[in-house]
Amino acid sequence: MAIFTFSRSSLVLSFFLVAALARPSSKTQIRAITNTSLTDVSTAFSKAGIVPGVIPVFKPTGLLDVVFTVPATQQAVNATPGTNLTTQQTANEPQFVLAPSDTTSASNAEFVVALFDPDAPTPQNTTFAQFRHFLGAGYRWSADTGVLTNTTAALTEFVPPGPPPYSDPHRYLVLVYVQSEDFASKVPSILNASTPRTNFNMTAFSDALGLGAPFAGTFFFTGPDSTATPSGSGSGASPSATQKGSGAVSLHSQLVVTGVFVLILTTYFLS
């Protein structure tokens, strides 16, 4: 039998190599646009009661990924339509990644991004809805990464989802609009730092500023507990958090287990 002569430094190097390979990646990728994918998003909005219950129409011309970074693990979590996320997963301000069907127009446009809750304080009692969690303007699209970025202060700073303890999971909508030319001059008379976050109306805001219909959008569910499982009481059906978020975690676990197995075998042959 061959004699293995691994040094202690080689063993340590192998451990760090395995750890690096097993670390979850937060890199985002631009999704491909197809008529089917756009239709799927529109259908999801209708099934969740968002159309026509929250906005009158939704016919997107681009796909939107909303990517949260989990504070404890730095793992990227993508809020695709109907995803079930916890308050821990949505604690930080997300990154917005856009895949437009017309890349030339998107490269020359500015965008407005809004995140709001139509189920405040509960899906059965929406007296505070819509609650505005974030509103930003002046976003530019990167053809290389798909990421939307801006250099101006948010119109409404990000506040993370936080449904009350007794509530069913809430729907959280993220909509992207093409910014109108006179948006910057008009918006101060409609919304400013003293404007309450509660009782916001996205459709009325869009109409007043000439934004038109949403360019792209997505939505996710967040409940007051760690599982955030909807009970089917009017906020729409959604899959479990483990079904939607297990892919990256499973791959991570498999890589770690593989690395441990390799280290055990190496230790065996060295002994």
From TrEMBL:
<dbReference type="InterPro" id="IPR035810">
    <property type="entry name" value="PEBP_euk"/>
</dbReference>
<dbReference type="InterPro" id="IPR036610">
    <property type="entry name" value="PEBP-like_sf"/>
</dbReference>
<dbReference type="InterPro" id="IPR008914">
    <property type="entry name" value="PEBP"/>
</dbReference>
<keyword id="KW-0732">Signal</keyword>
<protein>
    <submittedName>
        <fullName>PEBP-like protein</fullName>
    </submittedName>
</protein>
<dbReference type="GO" id="GO:0030414">
    <property type="term" value="F:peptidase inhibitor activity"/>
</dbReference>
<dbReference type="Pfam" id="PF01161">
    <property type="entry name" value="PBP"/>
</dbReference>
<feature type="signal peptide">
    <location>
        <begin position="1"/>
        <end position="22"/>
    </location>
</feature>
<dbReference type="GO" id="GO:0030162">
    <property type="term" value="P:regulation of proteolysis"/>
</dbReference>
<dbReference type="GO" id="GO:0005543">
    <property type="term" value="F:phospholipid binding"/>
</dbReference>
<dbReference type="GO" id="GO:0046578">
    <property type="term" value="P:regulation of Ras protein signal transduction"/>
</dbReference>
